[in-house]
Amino acid sequence: MADAKVKDFPKKGETDARLRSFIERVERLEAEKAELAEDIKEIYGEAKVNGYDPKIMRKIVRMRKMDVEKRREEEALIDVYKLAVGLD
Amino acid sequence: MADAKVKDFPKKGETDARLRSFIERVERLEAEKAELAEDIKEIYGEAKVNGYDPKIMRKIVRMRKMDVEKRREEEALIDVYKLAVGLD
User: Fold this and answer.
1) CB A36, CB B29: distance < 8 Å
2) Which of A1, A37, B37, B71 shows the smallest number of beta carbons within 10 Å?
3) Which runs of E-coded beta strand occur in B1-88?
4) pTM score > 0.90 for this model?
5) Burial, B35: exposed, middle or buried (Cβ in 10 Å; 0-12, 13-18, 19+)?
6) DSSP label at A3?
7) Cα(A54)–Cα(A45) distance, rounded to whole angstroms?
8) What CA–CA distance (Å, rounded) separates A64 from B7?
9) CB proximity A31 to B under 8 Å
10) Chain A hits for B23, Cβ within 8 Å
11) Strand, helix or coil at B4?
């Protein structure tokens, strides 16, 4: 569970209850985020076992997030620059 | 909903169903992660309205994640280095 990863504040410390509550809320969500990141890593691992290259997949995920026009523009520009510096 | 943010693959393209499924799973989790990041931002915003400094809070969250001994060691070292370069 996400909560298990969240530290307790000192019980009898003079912590500001309101600030503590904000921090704890952030920490709970951060723990959930970390779990999702872990799940994502597992999917890439599973894909790798199935013969897919995780590095390339990450590039694909990034590309699919982009606006199509922006992506094509960028790809065209990369080709131009590659040519310019002799990258074949 | 998280799913709304996930793009559809071309319906009649010759995409590899397995690869597509991996990518879609990753994208779904990435969308959830993005939502959590948004929620976290909102908490910091709420804290700010209540007079707390989000930048300092982020430092506190980072510190609480650290091993206590490691953190104290680092803090001591920072003091030493500050002294060494005349940071007061």
Assistant:
1) yes
2) A1
3) none
4) no
5) middle
6) G
7) 7
8) 7
9) no
10) 57, 60-61, 64
11) helix
